[in-house]
Amino acid sequence: MSKFDGFISDAESESQLRRTGCGVQTLLEKLAEDDADQVRAALGRADITHQAISRALKRRGLTVSAFTVGRHRRGICSCPEGEQ
Ligand SMILES: [Zn+2]
After folding, report:
1. C-alpha–C-alpha distance, residues 16 and 80, integer Å
2. Distance from C-alpha of 8 to C-alpha of 2, rounded to nearest angstrom
3. What is the pLDDT of residues 51-64, one digit of tens each?
């Protein structure tokens, strides 16, 4: 058994993960369409802070850090371009 057995398939699945986007995108995909729309609306509102979105999600049992929300909003997260 080499340490590198299955290396290519590991790398492939990692790049798959990256293509699926950040925590915010993963969350949006997991939610029902109506719920996701509400989160997207909040994300689009400049008067709602990253922290507030993170806390409101937490109340519903969903964990996304304010940091992740901020990265997603600024477009510097791992989401594929054009899908934010
Ligand atoms: Zn993102």
Report:
1. 11
2. 13
3. 999 999 999 999 99
